[in-house]
Predict the structure.
Amino acid sequence: MFTGIVEEKGRVAAFTKVSRSWQLQVETNVVRNDAALGDSISVNGCCLTIAGISANTLTFDVLEETRRLTNFSALRPEATVNLERSLRFNGKIGGHFVTGHIDGMGTVDLFEQRGSDYYLRVLCPLESDRYIVSKGSISLDGVSLTIADVAPGQFAVWLIPTTIEMSNLGEKSVGDSLNLEFDMIGKYVEKLTRSPRN
């Protein structure tokens, strides 16, 4: 479980095919400090398990399904990724509950600076609309954000300069993919209120 408050931008050292899965090595300064084998780390919003620790990198095993269903398929050496350690019971919850289980991908449709802030519009599958509500929460590449505008098949968020600096969202361009995780509460409400099948 995470909060969607990115702790640092890591840098991809390598992302290679190993046997039938993939191995991701990420250079990190902050989240590596108290890391232990088996810990969960959010990498661009995906919950991954630490499989190796070295002086300046963390290594993760990545399923082929994870690579295929997320924007990991576009990761290359030197790419930046958003990193967050898992939530601790004595920690602060500054964002919202984020599981690290990606629901799908969106595409950057518009990204521009407006005054001192930034406006990001994202295209998403129409079937996702039921989870997207104005002023609701969403996780983009692991960043907890508030939805500002909603239209069929798209939504927009505002980014403050701190988010641009602390995450990789400031490096996105029109056409880039984003990992989407919809608000967990909304998904449970939908299931609980769905009419039973006959």
